[in-house]
Design goal:
The protein has 373 residues and is α/β, with parallel strands linked by helices. The protein has two domains: 240 residues, Spore Coat Polysaccharide Biosynthesis Protein SpsA, Chain A (Alpha-Beta Complex), CATH 3.90.550; 120 residues, no CATH class. Strand 1, helix 2 and strand 2 form a beta-alpha-beta unit. Helix 1 runs parallel beside helix 2 and helix 9 runs parallel beside helix 11. It is globular and about 55 Å long.
Length: 373
């Protein structure tokens, strides 16, 4: 991308932010909150992201850019254009989690807003999130509603939870923002694109897993926050605007590997044994679908990479056991699972997915009424 193309995209994303943000009275930016922006070759978005924080009243001195081995000159641009903003650099691209952890551990405030570089906050978003956390000290994470930049009245993430099969549940995706309502609610997990986090709780729960390049990276962290006895609250009046792009199929192997490692690391032995029959069925169906879609090699690579991680499982499980206060059935749910649209390319596959969701729901209900009572 040329310099002019970057400048044009910066202008366009800034204009999009201005057009989608209502002019309201801006509350004072919380002094006990610092901001950590994770960026990788996202120079084209940084201007709008930083302008959104400026509009929210955030002092430059409370902002840290954590750069993940970028080659687009973004950090140099920040240092020349945004005096006071701190820049930290990572030399290798191992995904967003090492950068998120650096942003959290290097913060000097008790609360940290972690956000991706392609996200823009609305004027009072951070204030509303911080206010919600004051209601209860057990709230470790406050999550906004995430909307699409090109469709700011449409939800990308809201009401998210973790299915007992370790798949994402995102019931509001694609629905109008107004349908969500204005009542805060506890949720099971949250998207890492923007989260207000208690620094102490994050450290106690083991931070983000640096081994998760992509896929379950935020779900794993927020799930462990729940296992540690904390609450995650969603504040529907707080919005962020996400310039998201479709995920490529090259991430499949990370997603498959991380899902299995997630379960083996975090699930109780009893849960894994009880789910064994349905997990086997799920895996057979997944292999069949991936092979049909031409991704069987990605599945094989995922399993081989999972095997490499197995020696660390005893210590991983011991680490989770140290802070666990909630049982699996208290934090896992059953609901229609989220599947990429390109994986459900015809009506037959959609029908099969509906039947499968019903089977999973009945299986979970049976466990909850009997063994997991």
């Amino acid at each position: 991308m040329t310099t002019k193309q970057i400048e044009d995209l910066q202008k366009q994303t800034t204009l999009n932010f201005t057009a989608t943000t209502q002019v309201t009275a801006v509350e004072e930016f919380p002094q006990d909150v610092s901001v950590a922006i994770v960026t990788h070759n996202a120079l084209s978005y940084l201007a709008a992201t930083l302008e959104s924080l400026k509009a929210a009243g955030c002092p430059n001195e409370q902002i840290t850019i954590v750069d993940v081995a970028s080659t687009d000159g973004g950090t140099d641009w920040v240092e020349s254009q945004w005096s006071g903003v701190r820049v930290l650099r990572l030399d290798f691209n191992k995904g967003p989690n090492p950068a998120r952890n650096l942003g959290i551990t290097s913060a000097t405030t008790p609360y940290v807003l972690i956000m991706d570089a392609d996200v823009m906050v609305q004027a009072n978003t951070v204030f509303l999130l911080r206010t919600a956390m004051k209601q209860d000290p057990s709230i470790a994470i406050a999550s906004p509603i995430v909307v699409y930049a090109n469709k700011p009245d449409t939800i990308q993430y809201a009401g998210t939870s973790l299915h007992f099969m370790c798949e994402a549940v995102n019931p509001w995706q694609g629905k109008p923002v107004y349908e969500r309502g204005t009542e805060p609610q506890d949720i099971g997990c949250a998207s890492g694109c923007t989260l207000l986090i208690s620094r102490a709780a994050a450290i106690r729960a083991g931070l983000f897993d640096n081994r998760y390049f992509a896929g379950k990276d935020d779900g794993d962290f927020t799930h462990r926050i729940k296992l540690a006895g904390y609450r995650i609250i969603e504040v529907p009046t707080a919005h962020v605007i996400h310039n998201c792009s479709p995920r490529g199929t090259k991430l499949f192997q990370h997603q498959i590997r991380n899902r299995w490692h997630f379960m083996l690391k975090n699930y109780q032995i009893r849960t894994l044994l009880l789910l064994a029959p349905i997990l086997l069925l799920h895996e057979l169906l997944q292999i069949t679908l991936l092979t049909y879609k031409g991704h069987s090699i990605a599945y094989l690579k995922a399993i081989l990479n999972l095997i490499k991680m197995l020696p660390s499982l005893p210590s991983d499980r011991a680490s989770v056991a140290k802070f666990r206060v909630r049982q699996d059935h208290e934090v896992l749910i059953s609901s229609p699972i989220l599947v990429r649209e390109d994986m459900l390319s015809n009506s037959f596959l959609c029908y099969c997915k509906t039947l499968y969701d019903s089977l999973l729901s009945n299986y979970w209900k049976l466990l909850r009424k009997t063994i997991l009572k």
